[in-house]
Write a structure and sequence with these properties.
single chain; about 0% strand; mainly alpha
């Protein structure tokens, strides 16, 4: 939100629009790798629940090794990636120029970004929410300060925002690695070198995370498609949607707090084979998630316009964002179930079902809805996205009940009936 705020007060919407489109590229790359967090959480939580210290150690080092390998590839391939992405986005030349500057600086933060995914996921799985909070606070406080120093103080533009992000992510990673060293000292266990050097040892990691990867790339691809389609309506609409997506991100991080709790508690219960603990975790996190979603909707209804005015003073961007604000007021109530059940499915490592529901929601709901409402312009895009979020939540709620009542689940939980 600070990135959007400092750029939204410059003399042109081009800078905010450029970073919004470049951000869509990074979302596709970085958030597509979010399996490093989600999958690591589920696996680590199950090892924690079963008291497997060696498994806990293996889960984090495998995740960090994979994160470094992927990040190295992204940095090495940054120019062909950028060339293909900007051809697909087909943005106006000045928007593309601003976005390219941001992209080729921000990409150097890839190693820190992906390692932070792994660290945050592992600590959540290990039932420690304080360290992820410390990592995120460190990252965001440094990013806020440097945004203000570079853009407001030194007069930099998209380059300043990008440099601030790289420094902030690296700082968060260093804090996380320090905390990891201390945490692992409490789980003394021999480390099998083959678990890190043999590809066959990564079979469970890739089995779970391969499906989560497809699920996440599909999600981020849908959001990137949304942003790319909005570019057809000009810089002001792109910038307005970027402002509103900050509302969505704020919502997602709020609901993700409870989804992360579901991941940790459900994963621990699954590892301990406790059906009662699993059901209790789902029931409690669902109730709190719905309450928080209603609070977000009410807050956006009351403070939405002042927040938009705070984030930008460009008249045409303000007007467009206010016009489409009702979609964001509706979004929390529609989206809440998809967030919560994502957490449940991560904890149980039901990754294949997550993948299938995401693919169906995109191909059978979002794309047809966008096509049929093409004439509604930006309202059609928001309508399609809202139906997409609703379909995900409904689909996972049905799948959860089906899986919970399946013979395989009953047999697994029966082994821990006394716990």
């Amino acid at each position: 939100m600070v990135d959007a705020g400092v750029l939204g007060h410059l003399d042109s919407p081009v800078y905010l629009a450029g970073v919004a489109l470049a951000g869509a590229i990074f979302s596709l790359m970085f958030m597509g790798m979010n399996f490093l967090r989600m999958g690591t959480t589920g696996i680590a939580a199950q090892h924690f629940g079963s008291g497997d210290g060696a498994g806990l150690r293996q889960s984090i080092w495998q995740a960090i090794i994979v994160a470094l390998a992927i990040a190295s590839a992204l940095v090495a391939l940054q120019y062909p990636i950028a060339s293909i992405a900007w051809q697909l986005l087909d943005a106006e030349p000045d928007i593309e120029q601003a976005g390219r500057i941001y992209f080729h600086i921000r990409i150097w933060g890839a190693p820190a970004t992906l390692i932070n995914f792994a660290l945050i996921g592992w600590f959540i799985g290990a039932q420690n929410a304080r360290v992820p909070l410390l990592i995120v606070l460190t990252t965001n406080v440094i990013n806020i300060v440097l945004d203000l120093v570079f853009v407001v103080g030194l007069g930099m533009k998209t380059d300043g925002v990008a440099i601030a992000s790289v420094i902030a992510e690296t700082s968060g990673m260093l804090v996380g690695l320090y905390c990891l060293r201390r945490a692992l000292s409490k789980w003394p266990a021999p480390m099998n070198a083959h678990a890190l050097t043999r590809l066959s040892s990564y079979s469970r990691f890739f089995s779970v995370n391969g499906n989560i990867f497809v699920r996440t790339v599909t999600l981020v691809g849908t959001l990137a498609f949304f942003t790319a389609q909005s570019s057809r309506f000009g810089a002001s609409i792109v910038a307005a949607n970027a402002i509103l997506f900050n509302f969505q991100y704020l919502l997602s991080y709020g609901l993700d707090g409870l989804a992360n709790a579901a991941e940790a508690l459900v994963g621990k219960a699954w590892g301990a084979r406790s059906g009662a603990a699993l059901r209790r975790a789902v029931r409690l996190t669902l109730a709190w998630s719905v309450g928080l979603a209603v609070a977000f909707s009410a807050a956006y209804a009351v403070t939405g316009v002042p927040l938009i005015n705070l984030l930008t003073d460009i008249p045409e961007v303000r007007a467009a964002a206010i016009m489409f604000l009702p979609w964001m007021i509706l979004s929390p109530i529609v989206s809440v179930f998809s967030f919560l059940y994502d957490g449940v499915f991560v904890g149980t490592t039901w990754a294949r079902e997550m993948r299938n529901i995401m693919l169906a929601s995109t191909l059978l709901i979002f794309i047809p809805a966008w096509y049929l409402t093409y004439g509604w312009n930006n309202h059609g895009l928001w309508f399609a996205l809202t139906l997409f979020m609703a379909a995900r939540g409904i689909g996972m709620a049905i799948a959860y009940q089906y899986k919970l009542n399946s013979a395989a689940t009953r047999d697994w939980l029966a082994g821990g009936a006394t716990k």
